[in-house]
Amino acid sequence: WSNNSNYKQINGPTTRLQRKALHSKSSRGDNRNSPESVLPIPTIRQSAISRRDGIKQISTRSTTAILTPILTASTVLPTQPAIAYTPDPDPLRESLYLMSRVQEATVQQERFVQRASQQEILKTKMKLTLRLVEKNYRLLDQITYASEFITPGDRVVEATEAGFEAAEALQNAIEYVGSDLKKGNFEEGQKEYLSANLRECRERMFDFLEYMPREKVEGARRRVEEENVANRDEFDGDDDAGVYNPVILPWKNR
């Protein structure tokens, strides 16, 4: 199946991601007062440049260029508590929390892939959940923002490369679900391709997070764990729990 042009490379160029970043409107800040705005997501405007040039810009940009978190109109994912969303007052820890939620989501999506029996069933389920992941967590924005805090400073290129590859792998999965899953039984290699990209996203994020302040990474993960306990207490045994989908958090297996 690897010779089929429909199967995209896991580690392709980030041109598509950079175009997505470029489409981020500078007017997003106008959403600050929207009653539907619940997630504070640090965002940076990017140009349609090569991955290497992007990394170079990140490594030389002064801290005054860091955009402050903005609020975006979105809904809280099912794995978060049903109570009103309260952002972390620490912008970096908030960004690391959102990245941790993406890692959790890749495990959830991989379980969907393994259990699916028909293409259309998997497409319906993953198209919705991946859209929520993309909309709420904006992985590329988080990677770009957090790159300002990479330590040691001489590992910026290596760390940011890992982050970009994580975002690219997630985008591969999103696009494949939207365009390549059809109807009927799975073709050879389809499940393997999706699972490979989800794992690639998760593992490359682990690589990126190795260069983040350890105490802030641990604080972000602790928040995920505490929220999940609250969700478990609220939703377990509830027939109306919807798509509540608890999994073993990926950092618990390392």
Task: Explain what the structure shows.
It is a single chain. By secondary structure, the protein is mostly helical. It is built from eight helices and two strands, in the order H-E-H-E-H-H-H-H-H-H. It has helices spanning 15-22, 51-60, 91-115, 119-137, 139-146, 156-179, 190-209, 214-235; strands at 37-41, 70-73. The protein has a two-stranded antiparallel ribbon. The longest helix has 25 residues, at 91-115. The two termini are 31 Å apart.
In short:
The chain has helices spanning about 15-20, 50-60, 90-115, 120-135, 140-145, 155-180, 190-210, 215-235; strands spanning about 35-40, 70-75.
Q: What is the fold's blueprint, element by element?
A:
Layout: H1 15-22, E1 37-41, H2 51-60, E2 70-73, H3 91-115, H4 119-137, H5 139-146, H6 156-179, H7 190-209, H8 214-235
Antiparallel strand pairs: 1-2
Helix pairs in contact: 2-6, 3-4, 3-5, 3-7, 3-8, 5-6, 6-7
Counted by DSSP, the helix tally is: 8
Number of strands: 2
Radius of gyration: 18 Å
Terminus-to-terminus distance: 31 Å
Q: Helix and strand string, N-terminal first? A: HEHEHHHHHH
The structural class is mainly alpha
Strand order of the largest sheet: 1-2
- In this structure, how is the largest beta sheet organized? 2 strands, antiparallel
Helix content: 40-55%
For the structure shown, list the relevant keywords.
254 residues, mainly alpha, 2 strands, disordered N terminus
